[in-house]
Please model this.
Amino acid sequence: VRREVDGEVPGGELDVEAQQGLWLLNRVFSSGGGGSGIEIELRGWEIDTADRVASEIRHRLQRLPGVTDVRVSRREGQPEQRLVLDRERIAHLGLSVREVGRTLLANVAGLEAGRFREGGDEFPITVRLRREDRRTADDLEGVNLRTPDGAVVVLSSLVERRRGLGPVEIDRVDGQRVTYLTANLETGVALGDAVEGVRAALAGLELPRGFSVLYGGQYEEQLRARRDFTIAIVMALVLVYMLMAAQFERFVDPLIVMLAVPMALIGVVPALLLTGTTVNIQSVMGLVMLIGIVVNNAIVLVDAVNLLRRERHMGAADAVIEAGRLRLRPILMTTATTVLGLAPLALGLGVGGEIQAALARVVIGGLLASTLVTLLLIPVTYTTVAGWMARARAARRDWSSGEPDRQATA
Model:
């Protein structure tokens, strides 16, 4: 589309932007104009200086590979007539800037001189010059002002006319004037790599005093989402451990079960590499889901081991072997149903299917690996920990039984 419309409209600017993944969430939760791939906030008070710096940043961004549709939020200003007051002459005549400004306001916009009441209704009475007497700045210069000593002076003798361009709009963030520079990314360009390229391109830019550059847009949303998901992962691990500790009524068994969580990464990484999936918000969401899913099979196995040891008084090794035989089919059924249920989503078929495909691929890869961990590593770990605890209890009994002899010897 960019190739087709480039140069089609002489003097016009055309912006082509494809909807990004999770565009609906961006529209709902975005706090600013974070729809573009790259958004730079140039903060500074002086408008002319901001325009000059923004133009330099725009030229640098346009030279970067993979960055397109570079735009500056501030458009060319509208022509305006500026009346600059001669404050010294105004003060010399005994007038004030407020009086001069009020006279201009009364002649152009008008002032309320009173109210007309009729039948319970009130109508404001506004006094100002006739329309034909206030069409141009030349008409305003002929306005008369009366000084405190009774003399009459013409407004043109108190002001200086200057032509210029006034800003169409002024954006502010936290009370600071800001100019937004936005750009889109070409297909296949990662947002993180593009932002690093922008930082490198602007590294040698000398900003005037009082100016600063901040990065927003989808990059800001990505950093915020990454921070939120980090907190979510930590909270998920803590809550899962607390729940299992309450159910098992032990502190060691939940640690054995949660050993399957980091081991699930053995399947997540190959799944991402084989499918060419990047680590994005969707894949991190899949990782959060995976924390709650991978522990299920381990819970089923460990609970069966504890049940056999408690009811049949079996040893740790025998209980692990028997529990593995009894729980093998339920574990494989749970894994198979989950993997097959997510398979269509992982294929990314249909319009927009690739958006959620990363989530399903992470869950499938991690779940397959965690199943092997559950059937192999969890039994070995359980047996090892049970042996350590048995030896620790035996050592405490030996120490307790030898305590009277040591006291007698003393």
Notes: The CA atoms of residues 138 and 342 lie 75 Å apart. Residues 353-401 form the longest helix (49 residues). Confidence is low (pLDDT under 50) at residues 21-34. The first strand starts at residue 38 and ends at 43.
